[in-house]
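Section 4.2 – Deliverable D4.2 (structural model, holo form)

The reporting period included a commitment to supply a predicted holo structure for the target in complex with zinc ion. Inputs used:
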Amino acid sequence: MPGPGEPLFLEDDTAAVIALAEEERDTCPSCGMPKAWCRDPANQFGVFEHYEETCHVTRLLADQRATWKDWPQGQQAATQLSARFREGREPDIGAGLGLPDVEIE
Ligand SMILES: [Zn+2]
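Output (structure tokens):
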């Protein structure tokens, strides 16, 4: 924390906030691309292609929510749903990070 009389935000902090606000302003909330690309009439046909991949957790949770269709609305809204790995199916937490094996004593 700054001391008495010192500014709470420095020039770099302000610049970073302005840069973030500009990026958010210029990014399409629908597709996530820069608006200059996704809204350019020159890109209307034949420029983009779709890409699909499935989040298996989202799929699992959506399928589970679908089984609640006969529950009272309040119960559905109040029920917290999340996913976790089944016991014995947990991933190697360091997989893909290129970390050296370290002996823990
Ligand atoms: Zn867009």
